[in-house]
Amino acid sequence: MTSHDKIYPIREVAWRANVSSYQLRYWEQVGLLAPDYSDGGQRLYSEQDIFEARRIAALIRIGASLVGIAREKKLSVTL
Hints:
Blueprint: H1 10-17, H2 21-29, E1 36-37, E2 43-44, H3 47-61, H4 66-78
Antiparallel strand pairs: 1-2
Helix pairs in contact: 1-3
């Protein structure tokens, strides 16, 4: 995250992405999201993280599995 990124707490990201905080934490656990953390341990999400959460939610809505999303994400990082 750069110093120019806006920083959002998990509840705001959940609201903006129309998912639950639980889903965001789970997606982080399985490697689909990687928010930064404050010194106090609070998750700090950027605009890019919100975009990615919306994308993941949309893919799930059309039937993609988390494994498939993870594979696609890994492939897009290596290209």
